[in-house]
């Protein structure tokens, strides 16, 4: 391969971008202990699976004092196919717990929206526990311009 | 602090078995316990820690809150209504106060 200077620069820039993207794809390694413990307590020893649960959060939150988030779980909401609870965690907050939604068969569908505080740019995690004991998890990174935990 | 004022939006009418959207908002500063006053003393935590919604006495939805829920906590959730009745909403404050609201719905 015979590269001129321009091509060589383009290739090396691409390689750097790839490495940066790769580092970002593994946020699990950065999850603080308190968050891991909260998920384990909630899941009751099960490993959360992906799918079924969708967490909706803005990619960029200008004001960390009020960040809208929604959760939605695919479920018939009757018999064993029932969502019991969905827990929201923010791993970069002083205290990772945010809120826990408890659903019943009367809910019809397992969907809820609220507004939360985020201290800084971080991952927001939702964990759903079903009536049959299975556990699902979803995660979104929210970039925060102005943090919202006072100070 | 002024007495928290709940505001709830429930449709007036619905068809039997319809899934309706309920929106609730309550004015409350949700003091997180992280902030400090001018003298550098921590302002003690005072939040609403529990919200519940019941329909004719049966639980529909509830939420346990931590200080990371924004001031003036807002909730939007759904309920499946089979009969006419009353939704009862309850907010529980850290200081022991309980705030309630009720909304009737006609199912035709």
Count of alpha and pi helical runs of chain B: 0
The order of strands across the largest sheet of chain B is 2-8-7-4-5
Number of extended strands of chain B: 8
What's the helical proportion of residues of chain A? 10-25%
CATH superfamily of chain A: SoxY domain
CATH architecture type of chain B:
Sandwich
Mean pLDDT of chain B: 93
Largest sheet descriptor of chain A: 5 strands, mixed
SSE pattern of chain A, N- to C-terminal: HHEEEEEEEE
Q: What would CATH call the architecture of chain A?
A: Sandwich
Average pLDDT for all residues of chain A: 83
Category by helix and strand content of chain A: alpha+beta
**How many structural units, i.e. domains of chain A?**
1
Shape of chain B: elongated
Cα distance spanning the termini of chain B: 42 Å
Strand content of chain B: over 45%
Q: How would you write the strand order of the largest sheet of chain A? A: 2-8-7-4-5
Radius of gyration of chain A: 19 Å
The top-level CATH class of chain A is Mainly Beta
């Amino acid at each position: 391969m015979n590269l001129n200077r321009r091509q060589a620069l383009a290739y090396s820039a691409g390689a750097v971008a790839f490495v940066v993207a790769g580092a970002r794809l593994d946020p699990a390694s950065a999850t603080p202990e308190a968050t891991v413990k909260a998920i384990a307590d909630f899941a009751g020893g099960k490993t959360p699976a992906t799918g079924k649960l969708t967490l909706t959060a803005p990619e960029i939150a200008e004001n960390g004092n009020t960040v809208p988030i929604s959760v939605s779980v695919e479920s018939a909401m009757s018999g064993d196919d029932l969502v019991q609870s969905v827990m929201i965690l923010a791993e970069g907050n002083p205290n990772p717990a945010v809120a826990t939604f408890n659903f019943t068969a009367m809910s019809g569908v397992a969907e809820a929206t609220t507004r939360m505080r985020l201290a800084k740019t971080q991952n927001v995690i939702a964990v759903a526990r079903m009536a049959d004991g299975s556990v699902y998890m979803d995660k979104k990174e929210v970039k925060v311009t102005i943090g919202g935990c006072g100070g | 602090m002024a007495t928290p004022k709940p505001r709830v939006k429930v449709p007036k009418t619905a068809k039997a078995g319809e899934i309706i959207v309920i929106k609730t908002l309550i004015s409350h500063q949700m003091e997180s316990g992280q902030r400090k006053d001018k003298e550098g003393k921590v302002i003690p935590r005072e939040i609403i820690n529990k919200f519940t919604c019941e329909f004719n006495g049966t639980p529909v939805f509830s939420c346990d809150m931590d200080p990371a829920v924004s001031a003036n906590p807002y909730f939007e959730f759904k309920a499946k209504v089979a009969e006419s009745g009353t939704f009862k909403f309850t907010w529980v404050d850290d200081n022991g106060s309980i705030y309630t609201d009720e909304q009737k719905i006609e199912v035709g």
